[in-house]
Amino acid sequence: MSTEPTQPSLTERRKAATQLEIARAAAALFAERGPDGTTAEDIAGRSGVALRTFYRYFRSKQDAVGPLLSGGAERWRALLEAAEPGDSLAGILEHAVTEALRAPGAEGAEQLGWTRGLLRAAADDPALRAVWYRVNQDSEERLLPVLTRLAGDGADPLEVRLAAAAATDAVRVALEAWAETDAPTAGPGSPADLAVRCLHELMGGMRLFKP
Predict the structure, then answer these.
(1) Which tens digits make up the pLDDT trace of 84-96?
(2) With a threshold of 0.85, does the pTM exceed it?
(3) Percent of the chain with pLDDT over 70
(4) Which residue spans traverse the membrane (predicted)?
(5) Whether residue 32 sits in one domain with residue 92
(6) How many structural domains compose the chain?
């Protein structure tokens, strides 16, 4: 039986809102000046916080964009947490990925736009790439208990771990491939379209996903 997720406190919501505001300021400055032309002071000033507040939340200017890069993974995980065991795990994953990445409306398109710009900037910035890889590693680790519940008691733990890794990589590779192009946020070549294709390729041979 699924459990109701714990709701964040008011303090936690305020902290998350401040972090997201800083992340958006950092992403905007990276787009304008590049990471090399942006300082932590610039980001703090753009987001309207003190420099000490910036460093309370983030270790470096590249770290500041983490909340933007992790937004899609959080939506995906929330959809999976709401699913019930017993249904096709492959179907559950495909539905969640599609919903999380399909970007209906201006807000979703804006989120994908930020991601595209940051991934392009990361091509020439090792520290920014490290943030992206860390976001994906964290996503995989947090996805594992969710898939363990959905797979059921009889599932092989090794197969579930492999599924968490493959699902995370499917989304990562899809977003990276999409960011290198000018493909739209919906339809053929979009993040959702590519992610579903990657899921099928990576998971097609897994016993956990056989009918």
Answers:
(1) 887 788 889 999 9
(2) yes
(3) 94
(4) none
(5) no
(6) 2
